[in-house]
Design brief:
Blueprint lengths: L2 E7 L2 E7 L9 H15 L6 E6 L10 H7 L4 H16 L8 E5 L3 E2 L1 H7 L3 E5 L4 E2 L13 H9 L1 H10 L2 E2 L1 H6 L5 E3 L4 H13 L3 H11 L3 H19 L2 H12 L9
Parallel strand pairs: 2-3, 3-4, 4-6, 5-7, 6-9
Antiparallel strand pairs: 1-2, 7-8
Helix pairs in contact: 1-3, 3-10, 5-6, 5-10
Amino acid sequence: MPEVRLERDGGVTTLVLDDARRKNTMTPELGDALAARVLELKKDPDLRAVVLTGAGDAFSAGGDLSMLERLRQASFAEARAFMMGFYQRYLSLTELPVPVIAAVRGPAIGAGLCVALAADLLIVDEDARLALNFVQLGLHPGMGATYLASRKVGAQRAADLLLTGRRFTGRDAVAWGMALEATPAEAVLPRAQALAAQIAENAPLAIRALKSELGLDRAALLTALDREAYEQAVSYGSADLGEGLRALTEKRKPVFSGT
């Protein structure tokens, strides 16, 4: 079973998404494990900062394709409700009262990148393969993509990345303001932990207040998630998603019909 490992170093806690065999693919089980760790940390009065990373050579390869296939068989109402619960598992991360730093080494694709964007700060592998590639699968974006991307890089760049689904690198992410720093892959986690330790040295009450003041607009995020769950449920009933998943399996370019 996938797990989320917790490693403590003083007031800094590192959470490790650990399903390395599948490149930390986002499953309900991994989401449950993350939500349980978040609940545990919310009760810790000594917590000062959190680093989120992935085990192995990937942050997250994105959504579980077998889960998408199962959702194609679900009713619209079932799919919509499932997606809201799925988002909430992973975005429980935003409920932590202290700063969260995402340490992205290797690929962060689709919903996996969205979870990184939900962090307060992002340190990224300079050669990381990044993408918000939902539309290339025939799927409407989810996991807060429509809100988080715009918040990080502005409306025009977010529209570009969401409408094309194109890949980009960690260097690009820094140039666009999506990430704070890009480093060689082996330096990503140490740099994120050093930044977390620097934050942890400061006054806890002030840091927690700043986390709230600088953080995302929860009402806006919830509105985006509700709309995304609706549109993703529509996508699950479409021929386009089936074509996108087949094309991915067959390693070819999809031919979408708009149905």
